[in-house]
Amino acid sequence: MYTMASKKQLKKDLNDRFGEIIDGALINQEANSEDVSQKTEELVDEVIAEFDQQIEQINKKDVDDRAKHLKSVKGSIDKKVDEFIKKLNNF
Fold first, then answer.
1. Higher-confidence residue: 29 or 58?
2. Which pLDDT tens digit goes with each residue over 6-35?
3. 9-34 burial, b if ≥16 CB within 10 A, otherwise e?
4. Three-state SS sequence of the chain
């Protein structure tokens, strides 16, 4: 991907990866029953809430070491993406 985390790149990565999860969830919702529909809506809501929290962390200004902070945020994004994909795959 990239070695040095930048705000712009992290936001793009976050948007792309979370967007793909939402797209996958909505496609899954169309292809399945009402029971899956409720779970899908909950997952989409969770992804959107997490997106907002991650953007807040990316934009955080009062950090001692900016590069270290952004690297930590990237790790958090990666972890959340993995969690969301597991949830989606369990539908």
1. 58
2. 889 999 999 999 999 999 999 988 888 777
3. ebeebbeebbeebbebbeebbeeeee
4. CCCCCCHHHHHHHHHHHHHHHHHHHHHHHHHCCHHHHHHHHHHHHHHHHHHHHHHHHHHCCCCCCHHHHHHHHHHHHHHHHHHHHHHHHCC
Closest among 75, 72, 77 to 54, alpha carbons compared:
77
C-alpha span between 6 and 45 (Å, rounded): 26
